[in-house]
UniProtKB/TrEMBL annotation, chains A, B:
Protein's name in the database: ATPase
One GO CC term, this protein: plasma membrane
Entry membrane topology: Multi-pass membrane protein
Classification via Pfam families: TrkH (PF02386)
A GO biological-process term: metal ion transport
Length: 448, 448
């Protein structure tokens, strides 16, 4: 497995590069948002408000403590948009490069680049990934922006200028799974309008599949040749979208505050849109404060699972969970190996998945504990909020502005941890290699 | 690993034996509790009430839909006591025998019996386990019953007869981790009385360690010679008791409805007692309906983890969780093997632990979903209730009687599943042996 490859020109400590880049972008964004020109009201925004908004934007989360439409000026909103774009582009390229770097180092077969025989990641690879992400981003965002602009102009009496600004902002916010919107009630005015909700859904799903999957889909549409990662990601995406839509549509079917007033097709559209959001875009076309407990609980689970690796989605990633699912399948069938789509998933990957999932649970429970201590808000809403922050979703039952300054710092920490934690954890873990000469004798505690 | 041993005189399908025995005991108990002599009021108890109470007793859970002290006659209470004793003795012996059977079959070293060289479980082993469990049960229950009887007689103006009946009932209920009490407010009259709370705590902890651990502790007090299972169980028990006491004491320190009125020592006693209950006894000396959100959340986690394997405790068992913890440690340290106390935990055990933990999460979430759908009760209380039922704890925020007949069936199913699920699952899994000749090529999806 090429243990002797010592020439890695780009990454030495990939995890550090990523964390530093995001912290720097967040800091710059905070300073810019504190400028008086960014704020619509008098003076500049307070530090905590600017920090929270910049972190939420650069981590493409979308939680807000102020009304994006009313609190910020157009230059302020443009800063938010730039932070979203930098954050989304950054996480997509860096995560892809880390995956590429690790697969080379591990000697794993990869289809990410044509030059699969070279063993180290060179500048050529970096250029190829940057160009690929850039092209996909520009193409998808432009197409969605055009569709949205036409719709806003045609149906909502916007001027061409306003329609174009709204179209661009929401296309970028959707593709990067950010969930920021330029309306005071997010997208609640558009529940029932498929010409707004569907393009946004499409942008969210494409961004959330992740760069490695997109590249493979662009290269070939022969499912037989897809890598295990692509198959698992697509399978889980379809399962969660279909299952989520059915569940949420049924849970809100008769709720007068959400889907109640709509005809069956409108209900299905609304259910679909809110099944897309937890993976992990965070727009809302209804008020989650009046959604049913079933919807909130189902949404919490969908948010925690999240989207695809090395894309703009957050959460613990679909592959993490489907690997654990196949562990159960192997266990129940009595197989020695964990098998998925005729591929053996090795213990290393299984252990990474366990580690990421359990530490994710710990982060969400820990954050919930601290916020429960800091505030008197209902447990259900706090759990929803911390999951939303950690999975960088941005959905809220409406408690974000009530959570107080210390609570906002907790959410900032969760957003940062959720955005960078899993990827840096896995890369750090995968780079560690420690072979013990001596194997301890076996012990077998009773389980269950 | 002795594949040819075909002489298992006692167990052919251990999981079926256990499930059948518990269902039968529950059915008999239901019929007996429906008799008019069992009920204090007019007529016999309704079917659902009898079924719920009998299941709760035989699964040693302790959830109640009626006031045990007022609703049932002394003969009715004696039936409940008998069901608790049958259930506790049954699960302890059957789980121990299954563990013994599996360890023999797997060729693992075991210290449960002296005759470690024989490979199949014979009648001699069965007799040895039955006698061991019987002796431990009688000795612990008698000792605790005497202490409680003296205290009830001395301090609470009971007659000798009442004191003895109360002493016996609560000793049996404690050792078997059942949580049933003969006072309308459970043990709320005894918050602050260490002479009642401490003996009960001791009985709970001993019963919850599990028979294999108790046997090993009785055989030798040389920690060096303890099995990995015993070390892990003791470590987790101490960690959870100390950590749980600190957490709950602090969370309730100033709560006027719970620890507020007591001096620091009384607060510590109350915190300790309610840190013991989630593992998984289910007595309460305060009203969980007025406990803080922190306490409820912490208690949910403790309940889910539960106690030791092959004892009277419920939950997913402490070893299940500490194995997952050591997986994270191994992953973070970059070790190839999962190591605990200089023993290598093999992948088979790790996969069992993942399977049990994830299916447990699925059961609790599923139950919570259904109950949320069936009732309008707060999410927090429903999650507490389903965890309590599944982990056979019996703590409640007070919603059990309000949950309705369909909801009671859900809780009955959760209690049964929680009592028998993990153990039968693991035994069924461990008995499957399927070696594939052909190994699939490796695939490595991205994680996180
Ligand atoms: K988001
Ligand atoms: K119990």
């Amino acid at each position: 497995m090429s243990p002797g490859s010592r020439r890695e020109p780009f990454f030495r400590h990939p995890a550090q590069v990523v964390a530093f880049a995001f912290a720097a972008a967040g800091a710059i964004g905070t300073v810019l948002l504190m400028l008086p020109t960014s704020r619509a009201g008098e003076g500049g925004a307070p530090f905590v408000t600017a920090l929270f908004t910049a972190t939420s934007a650069v981590c493409v989360t979308g939680l807000t403590v102020v009304d994006t439409a009313a609190y910020w000026t157009v230059p302020g909103q443009a800063i938010i948009l730039a932070l979203i774009q930098v954050g989304g582009f950054g996480i997509m390229t860096l995560a892809s490069l880390i995956a590429l770097f690790l697969s080379r180092r591990m000697g794993l077969r990869t289809r990410l680049t044509a030059a699969a025989e070279t063993r180290s990641v060179g500048l050529g690879d970096v250029r190829r990934v940057l160009r690929g992400v850039f092209l996909i981003t520009v193409v998808v965002e432009s197409a969605i922006a055009v569709v949205l602009t036409l719709r806003f102009r045609a149906e909502y009496d916007d001027t061409w200028g306003t329609a174009a600004w709204h179209g661009l902002f929401h296309a970028v916010s959707a593709f990067n799974n950010a969930g920021f919107a330029l309306f005071s009630d997010n997208l609640m005015g558009f529940l029932g309008d498929g010409f707004v909700l569907m393009p946004i859904s499409v942008a969210i799903i494409i961004g959330g599949l992740g760069f490695p999957v997109l590249m493979e889909l662009l290269r070939t549409r022969q499912p037989r040749t897809w890598s295990l990662h692509t198959r698992l990601t697509l399978l889980m995406t379809v399962v969660l979208l279909v299952g989520g839509t059915a569940f949420i549509t049924l849970a809100e079917w008769g709720n007068p505050g959400t889907l109640g007033p709509f005809d069956p097709l409108g209900k299905l559209l609304g259910g679909w849109f809110h099944a897309v959001q937890p993976r992990t875009a965070g727009f809302n076309a209804w008020d989650y404060g009046v959604a049913t407990d079933e919807t909130l609980l189902g949404t919490i689970m969908l948010m925690f699972i999240g989207g695809g690796s090395a894309g703009t989605a957050g959460g613990l990633k679909v592959t993490t969970f489907i690997v654990l699912f196949f562990v159960i399948v192997a266990e129940v069938r009595g197989d020695d190996d964990v098998i998925a789509f005729d591929r053996r998933i090795e213990h290393r990957v299984v252990r990474q998945a366990i580690t990421v999932a359990l530490l994710g649970v710990a982060a969400v429970i820990g954050g919930t504990m601290v916020l429960t201590e800091l505030t008197d808000l209902p447990f259900r809403d706090v759990l929803f909020e911390t999951t939303s922050a950690f999975a960088t979703v941005g959905l809220s039952t409406g408690i974000t502005p009530k959570i107080g300054d210390p609570g906002q710092f907790v959410l900032v920490a969760l957003m940062f941890l959720g955005r960078l934690g899993p990827i840096t954890l896995v890369s750090a873990l995968a780079l560690r290699e420690r072979n013990r000469r001596y194997r301890y004798p076996e012990g077998a505690p009773l389980i269950g």
